[in-house]
Amino acid sequence: MPDPSTPAPDAALTIASLHRDFRAHFAPRAGLYWADLLASALTGWAAFLLALRLEPFGVGALLAGVVAVLALYRAVLFIHELTHLKRGALPGFEIAWHLLVGFPFLAPSLLYVGSHGDHHRVRLYGTERDPEYETLAEWSALRLVLSTLGLVVVPAALVLRWAVFGPISWFVPPLRRLLVARLSTLVINARYERRAPLGRQRARWAWGELGCGLVAWLAFLAWSTGVLSTIVVAQWYAVTSAILLLNQVRTLAAHRYRSGWVSGDREAEFLDSINLVQPAWLMSLLAPVGLRYHALHHLIPTLPYHSLGHVDRVLKARLPESSPYRRVEVRGLGAALGSLIAGSDEGEPKAA
């Protein structure tokens, strides 16, 4: 595994050269975005409904449940693309995403849009102001497992966040400040504090909170009156929890999460990140929407997900085996997680 103190990538990996060489690949392909989102969401919800019609805990129901989780997981992860798309690049896409998966899973784009950028700012990466970085390699294996399993309570917390505490917070300023700072962002860094939304972000927050609050209350009323069965609610909870757990495992394999690297250094940030290589079909399922190319994404965050694979193949064909680009590759999730756990067991920072 490369250490963040490794020498910087060669000239072919500079930001300027990447933008010059792959200029034609930076435009998002609207048709592909729409087709991918719709196919993923519709497949997921169809499998969700099919699982309800089959014998509970039977093989058919379990298989349908797996398809539902994987397809809806892919659809949900378009929240990452929403963060990096330029405003107006795909008119109506964010609204459709909310209606298809964002609101049903109580995960509005505000949880990520507006905060994920801090993870990509060189001067903030890996610091207390980075919401998505923690020195996890220094944690024990038990702590890593328990923190991941703890995500099963998040669906219930989301219901309370949007349906109860959110509306109350508009009349209780201290509660509002707490919700915005601590309970409105997807994080792994518990010290991260979100700033209050400004300008256009305030509108995104307003309708995001309203949409999730309405969905939560309508679902509760439908369940309490018998319109929505407890089985449906339980399956929604199970699928939501599975998506959260799967995404957390993927997140653990996105970086090396070690302290001591050089803050403010783009090359160190790149070398601290991971591209998941094999098997390609499995990595595409477990780290979809281009997230298997996480190191490459940190080099060029504005490159659309559908272009990452092409750029990765071209770079590997051009660059020698000794290139640092080869050293950010890890065979798969298992290898990346094994390295993280081994690092945590050693108990010492791995960087210079």
Description:
- This protein is mostly helical.
- It folds into 2 domains: 11-26 and 255-346, no CATH class; 30-235, no CATH class.
- It is built from 17 helices and 2 strands.
- The protein has a two-stranded parallel sheet.
- Helix 2 (30-53) runs antiparallel to helix 3 (59-76) and helix 8 crosses helix 10 (200-224).
- Mean pLDDT is 91; it is low at 1-9 and 344-352.
Radius of gyration: 21 Å
* Total number of distinct structural domains: 2
Form type: globular
| Total of helices | 17
Separation of the first and last Cα atoms: 14 Å
Biggest β-sheet: strands ordered side by side in the sheet:
1-2
Helix share, percent: 55-70%
Order of helices and strands: HHHHHHHHHHHHEHHHHEH
> Largest sheet at a glance?
2 strands, parallel
Q: Please state the average pLDDT score.
A: 91
* Number of E-type strands: 2
Percentage of residues in strands: under 5%
Class by SSE composition: mainly alpha
Low-confidence stretches: 1-9, 344-352
